[in-house]
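Hello again,

I reread your note about wanting to compare the complex against the isolated chains. To keep things tidy I'm splitting this into two emails, and this first one only covers the full assembly. Below are the input lines as submitted, including protein chains and any nucleic acid or small-molecule components. They are followed by the predicted structure of everything together. The single-chain runs will come separately.
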Amino acid sequence: MKLYHEVRGCSLAVDIVARELQLPLALEWVDMKTKRLADGRDYFSVNSKGTVPTLEMPDGQHLSEGCIVMQYLADQCPGNTLLPASGLPRYRVLEWMSFIAADLHKGGFMPLFKAVTPPEYKAIARGIVEAKLQWVDEQLAGRAYLTGDTFTIADAHCYTIAMWTRAHALDTRRWPRLEAYLARCGARPSVRAAEAAAAAQGERERAAAAAH
Amino acid sequence: MQHNGAPLRQNAARAAGRHRISARIGVRPTPAGLQAFPSIHTRLPSAVKLYLTPRTCALAVDIVAREIGVALDLVWVDVRAKKLKDGSDLHSINPKGQVPALETDDGQFLTEGGVIIQYLCDRQGADHLLPRSLDMERYRVLEWMSFMSSELHKTFTPLFRANTPPAYRGIAIENLQRRFAWLDRVLATRGFLHAQRFTAADAYCFTIVMWAELHAIDLAQWPHLHAYLQRIATRPSVQTALAAERDELATQAAA
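Full-complex prediction:
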């Protein structure tokens, strides 16, 4: 299967999940400014919304929306520990996924990334991010991961989004449980490998930009 | 969703002929209409509590519950004041202080509208609204639900906040219009979002897109989307769920 991916995008969470599941994905990097693929093709031909990630499945169909791609991948691996197959524990993981995607990513960080966002709204969005991260920090009391002792797809997702604090000079040291959690997630081999792949692509993109 | 629509970045053609859908959904359902609900074995207890507020995404949960024959005990809360009617703190139900929240039969609370919908459909075996089997049919419905939650709902959120500066309101409205135009192109070739039948994704889409009318966005400029919303508005589940909201709003106004 192939993952349409972006350096520093939320698609990193999908790559982490795939590595945790030992499902090899071919990474295809998307230039989200031009919506072009490396071979010049228009990314809108893959995903008409123009969003990453998109998963290309073995039959050539495309699945979009990171939260759903992560569910799909975990469900392909019966007995996995990343997403319980049924029962309330499954919905607890999905509840976190929904919060991270909607409140933290779209409601919180998204306006910070947009050049058109007026400064006065950026200040409001920073406040939203801080309140959400404060709440996550409280929830982590007595737990190694969001739903307990086990790393799930929600942790891959939360780690990916919460690390955007680094890009926006939001100091997470004021939330010690969150800070320890990010370090715990960041030490996982899956996370290190996914971040290394993204960093290597970032280097290639910088080198290509410098050559122009 | 199939990615055969034109790109999200393009503008949609405008169409003439406009009237508000909300005018059409003010009709109370007939008892005969109520009997049109699918008759299925109920696996949930008779009174499951849903904590909700009018004009929020909790409406989608109520619509889905009515579609699948789950009798919800609707507990109206003031999500802005974070209070229940007895004065207790909403945070004791949902530590995030949001609606909807569902009280499960073992006394736990489940939050996040899209997740409550999955829980209810899976418990009831409501495959017509959300296929249970872990095949692509399920993920296609969920893919739409994720889009509604992340791309539409959260784009509306700043418009509901008093402290959002006017400059950002304009940006949010433009972002919504681009997504409505994309949805309109998708709906040009299909009756519903997925598989030519009503699913949980349509309940969610209807709930969120109808907020456009609260923010003076004229939906008639997207004729396929507009016709789709009108079609969904005639469903007994939607009409009864909206009637319950109106009753609550009238109760609040009288108090």
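For quick reference: The first strand of chain B starts at residue 48 and ends at 52.

B.
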